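Dear support,

I submitted the protein below through the web form. The confirmation email said the job was done, but the results page showed an empty box. After a refresh the structure appeared. I'm attaching both so you can tell me whether what I see now is the final result or a partial one.
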Amino acid sequence: MTVQYDTASDEELMARITARDHAAFAVLVRRHTPRFYAVAYRSLFRKSEAEDIVQEAFVKLWNKPELWRADKQAKFTTWFYRVVVHACIDYTRKLQPLPLPDGFDVADERDDVHTSIESAERSNAVKAALLQLPGNQRMAVNLCMYEAMPQKDAAQAMGISVKALESLLVRAKEQLKRMLQHEGVRHAG
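What the results page shows now:
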């Protein structure tokens, strides 16, 4: 019997990974690396650290696949979000906030050359403000707004209650609004 790795569910791949199947692991990594890198990057805004966190999470998965338990009724992706989220939160807790350097520019490299200066400034201001949020607030915004996760899934990924997640989102939005108003950035949406 030939195994159809690319069409196998994440849960089927995890069963094979538990049996030390390298091909199943490669498919899972290829399938999910972009998604989890995006989460880590938007949490940290540091390319190499985001890459390291995702790589370490997958290495941890390979070394201890039994950490994910199918009998807990959690989808693989929800569980793995939690692994990546906690790694990002742990990383940000270790950092001391640094002042942003003069001329700080976090413009996305994919931005079209013809993007208006006002739009670029707004984007930079939002990213700079996000960087100044506490790690758990930034992660809540990241999961709910950028990843468009339902609050129940985001709360599960963060290991908190939905009420706690809602509280984090309210505080984050209030802080972002204050910071952006202070910077003179108008809401564009």
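Response: this is the final, complete result; the empty box was a page-load delay. The chain has a mean pLDDT of 82.
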